[in-house]
Amino acid sequence: MEEPRIGVYICWCGTNIAKMVDVEAVAAEVSKLPHVAISKTYKYMCSDPGQELVIKDIRGHRLNRVVVAACSPRIHELTFRKACEKAGINPYLFEMANIREQDSWVHTDRTEATKKAIDLVVAAIRRVQYHEPLEKRSVNVDPSTLIIGGGISGMIAALEIANAGKKVYLIEKADRLGGQVAKFNLTFPHLSSAKQMIQPILQRVENHPEIEVFLNTEIKDVTGYIGNFKTIIQNDNEEQTELKFGNIIAAVGLKPFDPSKIEEYGYGKFPDVITSMEFEDMLGTGKILTKYGKEPRNVAIIHCVGSRNKIYHEYCSRTCCMAALKFVHQIRASLPSANIYEVYADMRAYGKGHEEFYALTTHKQIIFLMFDQQDKLPVIRQADRTDDCNMIIEMNEKLSGESIEVPVDMVILMVNMEAQDNVKEVVRAIGVSLCGNQFFIEKHPKLDPVATTTGGVYIVGTCQGPKDIPDSVCQARAAAARILATIAYGSVQVEVTTANVNEKLCCGCQTCVKVCPYSAISYNEIKKSSEVNEVLCKGCGTCGSACPAGAINSKHFTDRQIMSEIEGIMSMSLKGV
Amino acid sequence: MSYSPTIVAFLCNWCAYTGADLAGTSRLRYAPNIRIIKVMCSGRIEPTFVLKAFKEGADGVLICGCHPGDCHYHEGNYKCLRRFKLLHKFTQQMGIEKDRLQLEWISASEGKQFAELVNSMTKTLLLLGPIKLKSKLEVEHLKQ
Prior knowledge:
The complex is a heterodimer. Chain A is an alpha/beta fold. Chain A folds into 4 domains: 130 residues, 3-Layer(aba) Sandwich (Rossmann fold); 183 residues, FAD/NAD(P)-binding domain, CATH 3.50.50.60; 162 residues, 3-Layer(bba) Sandwich (FAD/NAD(P)-binding domain), CATH 3.50.50; 56 residues, Alpha-Beta Plaits (2-Layer Sandwich), CATH 3.30.70.20. Chain A has 15 helices and 30 strands. In chain A, strands 10-7-6-14-25 form a 5-stranded parallel β-sheet, covered by helices on one side. A 5-stranded parallel β-sheet of chain A has the order 16-23-17-18-19. In chain A, helix 6 packs parallel to helix 12. By secondary structure, chain B is α/β, with parallel strands linked by helices. Chain B has a single domain, classed as Rossmann fold (3-Layer(aba) Sandwich), CATH 3.40.50. In chain B, helix 3 links the parallel strand 3 and strand 4. In chain B, helix 1 packs across helix 4. Chain B starts with 6 loop residues before the first strand and ends with a helix. At the A-B interface, helix 4, helix 5, helix 14 and helix 15 of A face helix 1, strand 2, helix 2 and helix 3 of B.
């Protein structure tokens, strides 16, 4: 092995790191270590000039190893690997130390945080010396795509891919396509018809020669890897079909929040307290009527039902404010003299044309009443016989500061968007992760919002987080474009951090064969040694730790690399620095 | 110098490491005594890694993986659990107190739980005091 010449770069991340970690001290301390050729700090390592710095040094100082101490490797490991590659060294001769998410952002003592940063950088330096160049491998891409979910996102993605002449399998667990959007009457902010919008899309999907639709169907386990997946789908009649495809789009959507959990609103107790989705159904009938068949004289629309509230869901559902304003127009058109109350917590009108729509709606003779989510929710009670209304909302009106009673005959609850119930099964099958709100986690929150950490698996629409129709459509088209790019290229790079077996050390016990979850290891009777199929191997390393002979090498996570990392982490503590 | 324990932690890439990152992005605060080593799966964690950490002077070793049933590689965490149970008996026989070695499941969304875990383990190790193995090993070394 050639003598390691390591370049070490400590990122300030503006003040994100530099405020809590003495980056200059870290750079100075680690510069004393053997094999460290240069040690520098820079404001933003991930910026173009930051990357250029690394590239220039690799060339100018003949560096053959690089360590960057910055944010989590989950954010920028790839960025710096690419920079290494650009400068002419193997991208795997790079190691990252996480001194932001796991150091400067979680600690309050600058001395301790700096000490920790030194330990982590020393560990990375010790580890990177044993990094080996790994060669990229690519596999062919099956040109068909599996899309799970036939709502607006799934259908748009399906059309985008199918229109390029590529096969799509569209799986929908319900008995019809269209998802939530098919249940709407109008869309905001233009008050155009949702039905007129979605009908032609449905027809195109159903009649497209390249789209095969499976209704009442769910996926069983998905096996394989990017470019070459396989699954078995099963319909309600328990008929099973095997499908092969190169990429997956999860578009499983959302479900409306069940407001019966919120006692204050009496949903389920008062028949004229209904959800926004139930109101859409009512609008579909063409008449707005109470359960007694009368036109309501007073209608209240309560916002943020299950949203922006620590007890239910802390996040904002993003669409309910505008949908509530949309309802105003529909109610006003049908009931010209009714009193309409918008009982809101905050008005969110961030989208294109939304603020204008809000302004327009205020001219519809409606009354806006504000409540405080953090204080006390409005309470709905049955009106007395002598009252000239059906129910009464008691609330603390925030702007006037007064406790008021609002007479109502019908209450519409703008329910939150929450994750589907059965989401865990899909998540497990396709190998993605969930955030705390049970939404799918994207690969990068800003720069890669439709990909996931599993190659070939994309997430679109509301399963990734609450969003409106244009945002869902954007994601659908983005994922389709990503997939079409890999299909057009014909092949894709796959995991290189796989395992391999040292035949000389293998004792033939076949423990590794048993522990591999992907059946990637087989025993070669002639060679008397185990063999890894590196296309099937996903690099978990379980075989490496099970091998009693130490014959299995988990690439990029070798014993030598991890042992050196441990030594590095502890080296300073023992010295009492 | 007052005693401040060092914890070497092995975290799987998909759940636990992501959970630890979430603690950071959520700006939660926890004790600075932990040093994290990333592995792709808790199934990769060899007993020798843990022993090595203790040998190098760690006062505690923490292993975190995905919750049962949530493993990115289907079942690596179960393999980790099996090895852990055996190893835990062994380390106790070596004279390493039970609480110095812990295995916990942390999901990608459990930043808060991770921060609490680090704090509680740091507290436990403060009560236990410095690991005695270190001085024992040094004596052994001198004898040779």
